[in-house]
Amino acid sequence: MESTPEKILSDILIGVAGANVTGSDIVTINSIILDSRKVLPGSLFVALRGTQTDGHQYIGTATELGATAILCEELPEKLSDNVTYIQVGDSAEAMGLIAAAFYENPSQKLTLVGVTGTNGKTSVATFLFQLFRALGYRCGLISTVQNQVEDEVIPSTHTTPDAVALNQLLSQMQKKNCSHVFMEVSSHAVAQHRIAGLHFAGGIFTNITHDHLDFHKTFDNYIKAKKGFFDQLPKTAFALVNLDDRRGAVMVQNTKAKVETYSLQTLATFKGKIISDTLAGMHMDINMQEVWFRVIGRFNAYNLLSVYGAAVLLGEKPESVLTELSNLKSPPGRFEQFHSADNIVGIVDYAHTPDALENVLETINHLRSGNENVITVVGCGGNRDAEKRPKMAAIACKYSNRVILTSDNPRYEDPMDILEQMRKGVPPLDYKKTSVIEDRHEAINRAFEEANPDDIILIAGKGHENYQEIKGVKHHFDDKEVLLEAFAKRNS
Ligand SMILES: CC(=O)N[C@H]1[C@@H](OP(=O)(O)OP(=O)(O)OC[C@H]2O[C@@H](n3ccc(=O)[nH]c3=O)[C@H](O)[C@@H]2O)O[C@H](CO)[C@@H](O)[C@@H]1O[C@H](C)C(=O)N[C@@H](C)C(=O)N[C@H](CCC(=O)O)C(=O)O
Ligand SMILES: Nc1ncnc2c1ncn2[C@@H]1O[C@H](COP(=O)(O)OP(=O)(O)OP(=O)(O)O)[C@@H](O)[C@H]1O
Ligand SMILES: N[C@H](CCC[C@H](N)C(=O)O)C(=O)O
Ligand SMILES: [Mg+2]
């Protein structure tokens, strides 16, 4: 366990402009806490305006539990003696700066690269982590699947943790002598200033398509959030953008960082071309060098190209980068392939947006040799962007011979309501090939019962997840496990 750091309040407030301090700033702070229920004596409690409630309501509780200081946008009516109040314009932004200072700015002592975009963040960050380890560096990873300090796995709760957890993780990585850290930067993280105060050596943009409009409300706001990451990069950093995405140029419109580009279609700093792509591997040309990859699919050609670009921009030799890259495997639940004894191909993939599903199904259709059927099992998560539901069902129908709509993580919604919304996207001509089976276990089994040798079954949406979240409880569920069970049944 890490020893608890302690800091004098005035020392961690240095970077926060315009803070109005009531009370002494020469007090000791032993932790920064965002949830009043977790406050301990000596904490600095941060009152954040959230999506469900307003942290300002809990300032009284935090004080009763012994908070030494309160960071807030609005002072409570009654101030307590012996508590210091720091009033700022934006608590979340100030918290980022304070959290970085509390952990002694670990990001400044590391080479930190952030990856943003609707799809591909986990893939790119994980490839970079694997690549740099293979090149001999000690590395850290912050991602949806898991966080990692070299071999040590730290379970992740978010794609990008809150500013306090994030700086604590970075500090742990720096203390364990990591030189490089690769992290995902979600749009929520930018909008909520989880990355405020971090020093990045580089930023990568993968792509932007439809997602998270439940949170950002409009596509414009969503674009702005992603762009916010590039706006905050320093002059010393690189900003590596996908030129084939319509919004690539917008992302770096106002960045101070050095803009570099990658593309499969046009001239760019890092230019790639797919020579061949089969279930066995992908053959590409990257900046006039031919290379074989174990990882397949056009979307992965983009991921690999951005990883190559970032590594070269970080000063690595192109030849060594390509050699190591060619050996990498996909991260868990990203186009993971399994073959049954009677040659059914099962693919578990985390496609949970219309664009990702389309990419994956296009890849599958491109790889199939002709007569085999493609059977897709897919659902949509509850309490998330509802607009993607009919779209994902329509895409599943467009590219599959058979579609089984099922439940994903219903969270607090009724799974049958979600399925009804998905069903609205099924074109009437495709009704016959589509079934709705709410129970995901049963849905996957049905796909295998119906499959013939050589058929391809795609199980989409949950990838690496080993749970199904229903009304706040995570029940064990693993697509891969169910798939392997179904294979075993066929073989017995
Ligand atoms: C929508 C969203 O981003 N929510 C995050 C947000 O919570 P919130 O704004 O809803 O918080 P709230 O419940 O309204 O509470 C407001 C404040 O009051 C505090 N509070 C609340 C109750 C109380 O008794 N005392 C108290 O102090 C809360 O701790 C909070 O600070 O701030 C919380 C603390 O940092 C996060 O845990 C929470 O993530 C939730 C669990 C979540 O599901 N987030 C997802 C959508 C998310 O962030 N996803 C992205 C990836 C998306 C992608 O690219 O695919 C991610 O980076 O993981
Ligand atoms: N570059 C890409 N472009 C489009 N789709 C992609 C790309 N890379 C991966 N995908 C698809 O998107 C899915 C999710 O990939 P990945 O986990 O890397 O994305 P992510 O951005 O980390 O997602 P999240 O927002 O959940 O963190 C994959 O399983 C695959 O279907
Ligand atoms: N980071 C994404 C993951 C979605 C995964 C999917 N299985 C779902 O539950 O919707 C989110 O939180 O929206
Ligand atoms: Mg991710």
Automatic annotation (TrEMBL):
Residues where meso-2,6-diaminopimelate binds: 384, 408-411, 461, 465
Sequence motif: Meso-diaminopimelate recognition motif, positions: 408-411
Record domain Mur ligase C-terminal: where: 333-463
Pfam families: Mur_ligase (PF01225), Mur_ligase_C (PF02875), Mur_ligase_M (PF08245)
BP GO terms, sorted: cell division; cell wall organization; peptidoglycan biosynthetic process; regulation of cell shape
Pathway membership: Cell wall biogenesis; peptidoglycan biosynthesis
Keyword ATP-binding included in the entry's annotation: yes
ATP-binding is among the record's keywords: yes
Record-level GO cellular component terms: cytoplasm
UniProt modification remark: Carboxylation is probably crucial for Mg(2+) binding and, consequently, for the gamma-phosphate positioning of ATP.
EC number: 6.3.2.13
Binding residues annotated for UDP-N-acetyl-alpha-D-muramoyl-L-alanyl-D-glutamate, in chain numbering: 34, 36, 159-160, 186, 192, 194
Residues annotated as domain Mur ligase N-terminal catalytic: 29-103
Domain Mur ligase central: 115-310
PTM sites of type N6-carboxylysine: 226
Top EC category: ligase
Gene Ontology MF annotations: ATP binding; magnesium ion binding; UDP-N-acetylmuramoylalanyl-D-glutamate-2,6-diaminopimelate ligase activity
Cofactor: Mg(2+)
Family of the protein in this entry: Belongs to the MurCDEF family. MurE subfamily.
Protein's job: Catalyzes the addition of meso-diaminopimelic acid to the nucleotide precursor UDP-N-acetylmuramoyl-L-alanyl-D-glutamate (UMAG) in the biosynthesis of bacterial cell-wall peptidoglycan.
Protein name, as recorded: UDP-N-acetylmuramoyl-L-alanyl-D-glutamate--2,6-diaminopimelate ligase
